[in-house]
Amino acid sequence: MSGTDFTFRPLDPLKDAELLHGWVTHPKAAYWMMQDARLEDVERAYMEIAADPHHHALLGIGDGEPAFLMEKYDPAHRELVGLYEPEPGDVGMHFLVPPTDTPVHGFTRSVITAVMAHLFEDPATRRVVVEPDVSNTAVHALNAFVGFVPDREIDKPEKRALLSFCTREQFLARHRLAARGVPV
Asked: What would you report as the CA-atom Rg of the chain, rounded to the nearest whole angstrom?
């Protein structure tokens, strides 16, 4: 499944809460920091996001089924307020691939590529900003794959994070290389 095989739909906090609950409480989702969340906690968290004009949750759909979670946010208003100087066109992003008993080689790379392509479909998006936990080396590798460049470590209330940026040009350059089979 390539990044172009996914579609996106807004997350429905009530309808999708049970599905999300299984994803965010799984041990493999430890960096999502919802390990002990009850179903009601997940509903409440995503109802808050749905009501927030600066934060949006989407489900990535593959083969007609929910395949991953993506959140986008305005870093001038959420997550990174006071931790860096936002530029016009900055968009923050999180994504979560659910656990599976039958992993598909390259699936997560396809997901992050689809997420980035979706964000850059908006001509106003000039740069994507991420702030993963400094110890999440797996996501750092995925971020590098799509063109993110680490800037610096920052202290958020819940974690020490690696602030990283990816411009449209960096993503397109990495995406073209990967599409041609050049190791990135």
From this structure: 16
